[in-house]
Amino acid sequence: MCGIVAYTGNRSATPILVHGLRKLEYRGYDSAGIAVQREGSLAIYKKEGKVANLAELLGDYRQDPEHTEAHVGIAHTRWATHGPPTTGNAHPHCGGENRIALVHNGIIENYRPLKAKLEAQGRVFLSDTDSEVLAQLIDSLYEEDLVTAVLAALKEVEGTFGIACISREEPGRLVTARRGSPIVIGLGEDETIVASDASAIISHTRQAIYLDDNDIAIIDGGKVDIRTLDAIPVQRDASDIDWSPDAAEKGGYEHYMLKEIFEQPEAVRNTIRGRVDLERGSALLSGLNLTPRELVEFRRLLIVGCGTSLNAGLVGEYAVEDFAGMLAEVEQAAEFRYRNPIVGAKDIVIAISQSGETADTLAAVREAADKGALVAGLVNVVGSTIAREAGRGIYLHAGPEISVASTKAFTCQVSVLLLIALKLARSNRLSRESGVKIANEIGRIPELIQEVLEQNEAIAEVAKDFVGYEHMFYIGRGYMFPVALEGALKLKEISYIHAEAYNAAELKHGPIALLDENMPVVALLNQGPGQEKTVGNVEECRARKAPVLGVITQGDEEAKAACDWVIEVPASPHYTTTITATVALQLFSYHVARLRGCAIDQPRNLAKSVTVE
Q1: What's the CA gap between 14 and 539, in Å, rounded?
Q2: Distance (Å, whole) CA 510 – CA 581
Q3: Are residues 329 and 230 in the same domain?
Q4: Please, are residues 242 and 198 in contact by the beta-carbon 8 Å criterion?
Q5: Are strands 184-187 and 207-210 parallel, antiparallel or unpaired?
Q6: By the 8 A CB rule, do 521 and 466 touch?
Q7: Cα–Cα distance, 487 to 589 (Å, whole number)
Q8: b/e per residue, 187-225, with b = 16+ CB within 10 A?
Q9: 3-state class (DSSP) for residue 253
Q10: Within a domain: residue 401?
Q11: CA-based nearest residue to 591, from 495, 473, 493, 481
Q12: Which residues, 6 or more positions from 348, have their beta carbon under 8 angstroms from its beta carbon?
């Protein structure tokens, strides 16, 4: 969840480290720091708050010889797990008398007994973090070789880590390792840049190596030596990062989130390009590497994910059962491996994660594979851990998503899940004629999204009337229930308004007790199965003085009359309306948060890639 940047080469390290940290700010963090190696010593700078605070502490680092002559360094943005967000708890952490410096993502689960052992040896700790325990442990084992000390220390720790480590006694050397927390190594000419996310290295190189779990890399300038934690040499091939630095810039938009909302027509177009088979009324999903005969032998599709990905999975569940008549279930990935799930060789497990690094989803992937299921990843980041471990699946090709609140990943995930449902359906009971109709509707998604985006100003006007509320309900039925979940999630993430989503049928089974003039309801009233009953629920809300905002199908006068405000989306089948209605609610959430003056791209307490359990 935190950010790591490290550099070794012939250029000044500090400007590269600070630039990399700025590129990782979107991930969510509460403090930042760097350590640079120079003239047999380590200089450490860290500060609570934003990277700008750290840059101020560093002073004129582009001109100061103290920095310009330092060619090796590590840097970090911290998202607090152990200990509050303070300068003392910020990374890098040191061992002994600043002999080594370490930055760490992840959690050391057995840090307490390790800390007790080290304190018994007389070591004094300066922070509340588990990460300092690892730094002190490495230092306690360090005799002549940093790599030997790191390997010995990592064999003692339990938990997850992505680390970068330097020593004042080994000029030019950088050591990095991972288990459960991503590390990408950017390859340059006589230089190497290490990071937890490709966005920190893309301005310097497009060639990257992604470490596997239990890999350690010893880096000297442009030389990279990768081994296992048992010190066995291994080969990890370099790959190209498939997006440009410009894709991670705001491009004139006020916020990344707004830019990414408006990128959705093109993002979905890229996602479905070459995958919609209009001739056969099916989908071309070569990444699944499954024949129609193999597909028809499966009895159940199991979808695992967290947060927005979980909500997308719920749409996929409806579509698979609707199109293919195949049993589909959605599981919260964090619970999957702890409840002894019933899963086996007749199941397909789809693991959904924008980053491909979500720790809980990765754990579910491994559990499903251990139980003999066929596992496929649905991720956006090429080279990510879930993509590599699953070995099969589908890349979204949505481009980088910088805002913490996910938007285009959701719409692209749903688009792919509809294609998967169509593929399964054509391998089972669906006729070619029906398949062609569905394929054509999926192909229309980009233009439907564009129609919603053209209502941006009208939605902003509606949002003005909701700025003062502190609580809201979202309701929907069938395909629209996951949309209600996603709409409520977006609002609470970026505006800090308490929002809850319910199946509309559940409203009168308890939540209706909270309805009054201070509890507005957002109702998904689009034309489709269950609409009439949801309109009835809206009448129940208004009878209790609750204001109602309806998301409705264009031209539906009956639904419009039932609401106090409406946002209209173009007519389309209920399975694609899940996308257009979601985009409308993304814009609504964005404008409410903007008018409330919230930090939209970096909401408090949140991180982009959740790599801890």
Answers
A1: 61
A2: 26
A3: no
A4: no
A5: antiparallel
A6: no
A7: 8
A8: bbeebbbbbbbbbbbbbbbbebbbbbbebbbbbbbeebe
A9: coil
A10: yes
A11: 495
A12: 298, 300, 301, 302, 373, 374, 376
Question: Does the pLDDT at position 608 exceed 60?
Answer: no
Residue 268 has pLDDT above 90, yes or no: yes
- Domain extent for 202: 3-241
User: 339-348, 453-462, 552-561: which has the highest mean pLDDT?
Assistant: 453-462
Contacts for 131 with CB less than 8 Å, ≥ 6 apart: 82, 91, 93, 102, 103, 104, 108
Q: Are residues 88 and 172 in the same domain?
A: yes
Query: Do 363 and 268 share a structural domain?
Result: yes
First to last CA, the chain: 10
Q: Give how far Cα 466 sits from Cα of 107, 335, 462, 491, 596, Å.
A: 39, 35, 8, 11, 10
Same domain, 501 and 554: yes
CATH code for position 488: 3.40.50.10490
What CATH number corresponds to the domain at position 69? Answer: 3.60.20.10
pLDDT in tens, 5-49: 999 999 999 999 999 998 887 666 789 999 999 888 999 999 998
Average pLDDT taken over every residue of the chain = 91
**C-alpha to C-alpha distance for 548 and 522, rounded to whole angstroms:** 6
| Total length of the chain | 613
User: What distances in angstroms separate CA 519 from CA 229, 480, 593, one per listed residue?
Assistant: 55, 20, 18
Are 177 and 206 in a shared domain? Answer: yes
Same domain? For 237 and 257 the reply is no
Write down the pLDDT at residue 532. Answer: 87
pTM: 0.78
Of 390, 422, 443, at which residue does a domain stop? Answer: 443
Strand 521-524 with 471-476, pairing:
parallel
Cα 488-491-496 angle, rounded to 5 deg: 120
Show Cβ contacts of residue 55 under 8 Å, excluding neighbours closer than 6 positions.
Answer: 18, 61
Residue 134's CB is within 10 A of a number of other CB atoms, namely: 27
The answer to whether 316 touches 417, Cβ cutoff 8 Å, is: yes
Nearest Cα to Cα of residue 442 among 576, 312, 319: 576
Q: How many domains does the chain have?
A: 3
Range of lowest pLDDT (238-252, 312-326, 466-480): 238-252
Q: Which residues contact 268 (CB under 8 A, 6 or more apart)?
A: 398, 408, 411, 412, 415, 445, 446, 449, 579
> If we measure between CA atoms, which residue out of 145, 415, 467, 129 comes closest to residue 264?
415
DSSP state of 340: -
pLDDT digits (tens, 9 = 90+) for 303-359: 999 999 999 999 999 999 999 999 999 999 989 888 888 888 899 999 999 888 888
Extended beta strands in 412-493, E state: 471-476
Same-domain status, 266 and 229: no
Residues that are catalytic = 2, 608
- Per cent of the chain over pLDDT 70 is 97
CA distance 133 to 115: 6
- DSSP state string for 535-587: HHHHHHHHHTT--EEEEEETT-HHHHHT-SEEEEE----HHHHHHHHHHHHHH
Helix, strand, coil share (%) of the chain residues, nearest 5: 40, 25, 40
Place of tokens 């084992």: 141
Residue 59 lies in a domain: yes
Statement to judge: residues 188 and 166 lie in one domain: yes
- Write down the residue that tokens 């408006």 correspond to: 262
Last residue of a domain, one of 404, 421, 443: 443
Domain-located, residue 606: no
Residue 11 lies in a domain: yes
* Closest to 243 in 3D by CA, of 389, 377, 391, 395: 395
